[in-house]
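Class, study these two lines:
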Amino acid sequence: MKAELAKTYKTRVALVSPPRTGSTAVARLLWQHPAMTHHCHEPFEACYWGNQGAESVESCLYNPMEIDTGNRVSIADVPWGSGLLVKEMSFQLSTAQFDLLASLTTAPLIFVMCDPRLSTTSRLRIVRELYRAETFPPFESGWQSLHEQVEFCRQRDIPYLLVDSDDLRADPAGVTAALIAAIGLPSAAGLQAWAPRPGLQLCSPEVGALMSEARRADDPFYRKVLGSTGIQPRGEVDWARENALISAAGLTHDVEKWLQCYEEMRVDPALIAGQCGRRGNHAQAG
């Protein structure tokens, strides 16, 4: 698989995150860069939700979405020198699958995160819409997996970067410029703004339905970001309300653990900072 991708793509970038942390917005700004031409959306999703095998991963990677048109194309028709972005949810990856994904890249792995209280209440809204459920399994928050994957990179000297989407919201131009430089792409202006693409289908209906049949017609995971026009500031947060929602879902203890992981990653030298912040050189990820 790696050899096949290497024969086609000059640049291969992987983005991994817990759900509801702003990773699709980060993907969208990367799409704006001229070097990024194709996208593979969660190639391991069918393995997690449908117990499908390696053939489902290959099917996604070998039939990427052409970013300009939104069409799926065969890898045989992708011109040499193109750029591929692979986006995946942290909890959908086994250790072996994460290792495979990391091996496919030509740039540091990008981990996207935000305050886990906010990602938790956002996911609660989604599962309520999809399932009429009041909570979700803590593992599917993605925070345990993210912590393990960052540690995996540290132990094996795999280069990685951390992007806090709230830093990006606060300083779109600065954080975007720092991220582009950190993954080794030429600087480009205006990546943090884009045209709405509400009709774009990131996840095939068949794969989406493995999680919920409701995703065949209208996928609530990407509705807002695909209709957006760029990175926007976060509105004022009512923390008492957020904490009450977390408590009602029985996730308070879990979120406290995730917050500890989040705060640890906030001081990691791999954290991308904007023009007013700092980012250490984490090329060796030690």
